[in-house]
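Database export, one record per block. Field names are fixed; values are copied verbatim from the stored entry.
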Amino acid sequence: MEGDEPGSPVVSDDEADSDLEKVDFEAVGDEIDGLIEEDDSSSDEEKNTIGDVPIRWYDGYDHIGYNREGKQIIRGKRKSPLEEILDPKAWRRVYDEKNDEELVLTDKELDVVARIRAGQYTGGTTDGDEEIVPWTSNKIEIHPLPEPTEPKRRFTPSKHEAAKVVKIVRAIRAGLIVKPAKAEKYGNLYSFDVWEEKEDDGEKSKSEQARDLMRIHAPKEPLPGHAESYNPPEEYLPTEQERKEWEEAEPGDRKTNFLPTKYDSLRKVPAYPTFIRERFERCLDLYTAVRVRKEKLRINPEDLIPKLPSPEELKPFPNYVSCSATCKSPVLSISMHPAGQFLAAACDDGFVRFFEVPVLKCIAEWQLHEEAIVNVDWCPKPNVLVFAACAGHSVIIGNACSKGLGTEANAIDSRTLLAGDGMLEKGSQGSDGDWTEEEDKRIEIKVKRRARNVSWHHTGDYLASVARDTTGSSVVIHRLSNRQSQVPFKKSGATAQVVAFHPSRPFIFIASKQHIRVFNLQKQVLVKKLLPGARWISSLSVHPSGDHLLVATYDMKLCWFDLDLSNMPYKILRNHDEAIREARFHPKLPLFADCSDDGTVFVSHGMVYNDLLQNALIVPLKRIDKKSAETPKLRATTLAWHPNLPWLLTASGDKKIYLFTNVN
């Protein structure tokens, strides 16, 4: 057989067929696909995938679009017009605004541009002057040449090919056609007996072991009792009244779904009439009742404990007894002056003694009353040395400058505060308290009931006292400027224990034995009622921000309230074994402390954040033990913070006052 072209070799038909059989058409197809993919990948593709969107929409952004991976295409830095003039190759560059890149034109592309501008063909192989070859006719026709109509078979699916495709699909579904790699990978995975029971668990696969673990057996039916016997005892047989009640009752209200019946022998027992129905209900229960395997929670107890910072990271805080002082009588209450220089101690013998901090030297003492001074509190103004104390039926406001404390400027400011509006000369009668004054030294207010607690308003003009009474008139508010006392809460029947003012808003906190009520004095309404869940409240302290409250109780609980969160305690701390006498916030630092009858003082870190979505952080820091063998009870009755430093002062019934400072 001769070739089509001269010089081609002569090949027989048998040789051609054998050569075709040697050709690996699958490898050739893969090679062709690879060449096509390489050609497609080498073609120019746009990096920016925003489509036909105007590029001016991205003028206000740092990017101009997104690439095929979904990442932003950052806008590049353009050259200035001066830089483009100085660049010798600037005439070759073209700026692609969509893809933010400069394209350099090659010589070939410049030649195409020049031909287009000259009105010539873009290709350089022809100039348009070649002779036209008349393939069909040299006559100019107004219509295209007719072509034969396409046959219908070219537009309809081939039935022969469809039949072959269906045959192949059926073979694949039947498993007759399997890829070699897949057949080797899975093997005879699906060729096994489903109901086969393997005794050795080691031969089971992981999926079989998982199915065994997840299998939940159906619950067994209860075993029959004596009442279900064919010959039950006489006490199990129903009476006529019981039989009638059973028949009249609804099927769902019956205790049993059968009536015990007695037969002489087993052969006389008839067929059970409700057997099929009971079997059906049993199958229905197994089908509808979901059986769930409950996983046992394996929780590490250490994971439940919150991750708190180390106390070393929260320094400074008081951790060392710096010095101590001894009074002549037991100390019932102490108060630190806002300037941080003087400490006032209310003693059991009716004296108020003044100590200088930090040496705790007693520099003056003042006998205010014949009875014990149960509470003392300094005026919150740092430039005056005025304090308030409770003893018996009296609330005494004293000027400490009369005992030689402070400077001349403090004495002038203190006398100005005590002078008020000059309305009092001999005494003020007719109000809820009798006011008497003694030469700018002290003012004594006689109240109807025994006072036990006093608290100043942040302006220094008002103070509130709490009396030992079960009626609503136990809280009395005194105004220093016009010498007036009034009872704002006369209808409340709860026994008030302690009172405190809000540091910035017109609110007052009144604690009874088991509740804390927050009143708005300006609107004269009840704002909130706090429920600490305690039997007896001993003291309360308001945070400097005014949004948090610290409540100590006699039943050994310390409650932290977040007033914006709830009327229930945010945290309840149980750090003591006996009653907690007092708890106080530090005026500036994130610290608070509480003292108890067990002779210990507990110092904690309490950070309050400005972010309302973040809760307060409470971390226990130091447990200070100061037990004394002389006084087995009331070993830590009161405490006070230094206004600026992390110093803590405590006092107790053993006549001791301790100063705790921070030591690294």
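Remark 1: Residues 25-42 form the longest helix (18 residues).
Remark 2: Residues 1-13, 35-43, 424-430, 628-634 have pLDDT under 50 and may be disordered.
End of record.
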